[in-house]
Structures are given as C-alpha cells and as structure tokens.
Amino acid sequence: MRVWDPLVRLLHWALVAAFVVAWFSHGGYLSLHRISGYLVGALVAVRVAWGFAGPARALLGLRGRSRQARRLPGPHGSRT
Asked: Which domain holds residue 58?
C-alpha cells in the first residue's frame, strides 16, 4: 500500500476546503471568493512544484511512465 507524503495530504485537503469556500461564496462574498480562488491556484502551483522536487512518495508519477508504456499493448508498448 502506498502512503502519501504528509505535505501532499495537507495540500489536497486544503484544496478541497478552498474549493468548497469558493463554491459557496460566489453570491455576495466576492472578496472571500476571490481569496479562496487565489488560494486554489497557489495550492495547485505548490503541489506541482512539490511533485517535481519532493521525495519519492510525493512525485507526480512522471518518472515511471516509460516503464508503464512498455506493458501496454499496441503502438506504445512492446506487445502486439
């Protein structure tokens, strides 16, 4: 079983919370809506940066793509 990095868990739950705040504040709370929208963007940017620079449990899964592609049938894999 794969365990996610603690920062990844924190970022994902903070993203959920910021999205919920943005969703419910679109009516009359424009400043709160705008702040939560900027927070969503910042959280996504931090997650992408941490996905490239973080430890192995925080990676975005980009390093193992060639290994996975070899297992696929068809033009991208070795099986025909």
From this structure: 6-71
The answer to the question of residue 80 being in a domain is no
Q: Is residue 22 a contact partner of residue 33, using CB atoms and an 8 Å limit? A: yes
Total of domains in the chain: 1
Long-range contacts of 53-56 (CB under 8 A, 24+ apart): 54/5, 54/7, 54/8, 55/5
Q: What are phi and psi for residue 16, nearest 5 degrees? A: -60, -45
Confidence (pLDDT) at 1: 57
In the chain, what percentage of residues exceed pLDDT 90? 45
